Amino acid sequence: MGDLTKSAFQDRPDLHVETEGEFKGWRTWSRDNFETHNGPFYHRMEDDGRIRCVFRVAKKHLNGANNVHGGCFMSFADYSLFAIAGPVLQGPGVTVAFSCEFLDAAREGELVEGTGEITRAGGSLIFLRGQLRAGERTVFTFSGTIKRVKLKTPADAIVDSR
């Protein structure tokens, strides 16, 4: 994967580094309104180059049974896909496939940790798999595919040079 310290993982214009509290020094993205509203979700690169993602379960993450809502797990797993892919993504992407298994519950106050790996990175597709853990318990497993996309110029911004 080359020198990860010089990758887009470090240089995203929407990268925010937390400056205080429990997640001081952890990173998140500021431009995804859905994740900002439903998180906060954080990630960082460990010394060995692996990406670790975390969030602290709050009341807003719970379902009617006082366990983490399945949609919250799925949103955090999708966030984790992009954090894990960050060192090789090198630009924008979209999730084109996502599978998951719900294995156990997480509860208010617990720290949920997401880890995973890139299983293959091609020219346009990146394949990944991972897991979410609460303490020693694996609570959720997932796999997904990200498609690299090129930003298109809006049709009305194209100048006719005739």
Characterization of the model:
The chain is of the alpha+beta class and about 160 residues long. It has one domain (about 5-150): Thiol Ester Dehydrase, Chain A (Roll). Helix content is about 20%, strand content about 35%. It contains 3 helices and 8 strands; from the N terminus they run H-E-E-H-E-E-H-E-E-E-E. The chain has helices at about 10, 35-40, 70-90; strands at about 15, 25-30, 40-45, 50-55, 95-100, 110-120, 125-135, 135-150. The strands form 2 sheets. Strands 3-4-6-7-8-5 form a 6-stranded antiparallel sheet, covered by helices on one side. Strand 7 (about 125-135) and strand 8 form a beta hairpin. The longest helix is centred in the middle third of the chain and has 20 residues, at about 70-90. The chain is globular and about 45 Å long. Residues about 1-10 have low confidence and may be disordered.
Short description:
This protein has 162 residues and is α+β, with helices and mostly antiparallel strands. It contains 3 helices and 8 strands; from the N terminus they run H-E-E-H-E-E-H-E-E-E-E. The chain has helices at residues 8-11, 33-38, 70-89; strands at residues 15-17, 27-29, 42-45, 51-56, 93-102, 111-121, 125-134, 137-148.
